[in-house]
Recover the amino acids of this structure.
């Protein structure tokens, strides 16, 4: 009991965004449940207002947990909590194709360009799923497209 009190005291001093990042879907490892984190009303990103869907994710995990009847790994929790239809989804390891419904699409800068060009050419006014592009390369244009391509380094 003293251990839990000490752990709660330590957790209360950690910023709320850290608790959400670390505690989200695995309530057994942390003294608070995902419902506590959901009560904090944390947005998916600082650019959007859509909140993290903890209640939905938790409900899907419970459905799969009841179906499988064994503890789930963190990877299984992340994947299964994003199933489109957890009640009827065929789940056979190494055989089934999972029909997933992601909360966010995170793209890498090199491959995101084509995805963004295809989206722009579709004529749709907005994306169906919030999307972000994570740039991990710094590309510098010095003179211009044609001149830069001619230059050998």
């Amino acid at each position: 009991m003293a251990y839990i009190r000490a752990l709660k005291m330590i957790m209360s001093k950690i910023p709320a965004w850290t608790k959400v990042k670390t505690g989200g879907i695995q309530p057994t490892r942390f003294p608070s449940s995902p419902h506590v984190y959901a009560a904090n009303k944390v947005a998916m990103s600082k650019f959007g207002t859509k909140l993290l869907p903890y209640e939905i994710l938790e409900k899907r995990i419970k459905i799969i947990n009841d179906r499988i009847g064994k503890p789930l790994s963190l990877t299984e929790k992340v994947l299964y909590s994003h199933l489109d239809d957890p009640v009827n989804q065929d789940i056979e390891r190494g055989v089934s194709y999972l029909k997933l419904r992601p909360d966010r699409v995170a793209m890498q800068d090199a491959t995101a360009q084509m995805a963004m060009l295809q989206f722009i050419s579709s004529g749709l006014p907005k994306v169906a799923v919030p999307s972000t592009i994570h740039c991990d390369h710094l590309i510098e244009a010095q003179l211009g497209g044609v001149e830069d391509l001619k230059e050998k380094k």
Q: What stands out?
A: Helices lie at 2-12, 16-23, 34-39, 54-68, 74-80, 109-122, 145-150.
